[in-house]
Amino acid sequence: MARGGLWASTLLSLAAVAYSGGALAADGDPLTDPDVSLSGTAVLVHRAGDDRPAIRLTNDGFKQMGSAWRTKRVNLTRSFEIAFTARLRGGVRNGADGIAFVVQGIGPRALGGWGGGIGYRGISRSVAVEFDTYQNTPDPNSNHVAVTLGGDPDQHIASAEPSIPLLGKPFRARIGYDAAAKRITVHVRTLAPGATEQLLLDESVDIARTTGENRGWIGFTGATGDVTSRQDVYDWVVTAPRA
Length: 243
What we know:
Elements: E1 7-11, E2 17-20, E3 23-26, E4 36-40, E5 43-46, E6 53-59, E7 65-70, E8 74-75, E9 80-89, E10 98-104, E11 126-132, E12 144-149, E13 156-160, E14 171-178, E15 183-190, E16 198-204, H1 207-211, E17 215-223, E18 230-241
Antiparallel strand pairs: 1-18, 2-3, 4-7, 5-6, 6-18, 7-17, 8-17, 9-14, 9-18, 10-11, 10-17, 11-12, 12-13, 14-15, 15-16
């Protein structure tokens, strides 16, 4: 995806990055409220045995929805890649509804609907990659990854079922955007040593055109409905080409 360019990668508390004059710059400070905008039920929590905070989008309550956005916008006309670890924990057999990585042009307080809305329904100028753990009527199953546009989780432009469960144990996801080719790719893997990534999706998407912005906000949303889940995102890494 770099296509000969130099790349810089920054891992912060949640991998905060800033763009200044087109170049990548590391904030270097632990993630604090000014670095990320939280809405709904989203909070920052510290995980046991780890000083790095996690974003907790929902906390095992009914009909919750939360969002967390980087307050510094990203250049959507250029390629980028994000990686993160998620742990979605429900009951013995199920949990709902899932989380999404979202790129949007609305603003750093954007928040969508609960339940099958996965916290991004109604965020009209957006591209979402959802990690869905509950089968609502439009869904293919209760363990799928999908790309959606325009804040509409009922219309998947593409979806795939990973070979690993999204609910229960933590998983690592990597999402790449090739701005020249206007393509988005999604990989997932377990956290087991030596685990191999699985390419789930490789789809044509023009993020800048869909969001209506050359510089937009990136972040995460999540929701629960009549079935609940505790949904955490951590070790968020953003990679982008240097100018």
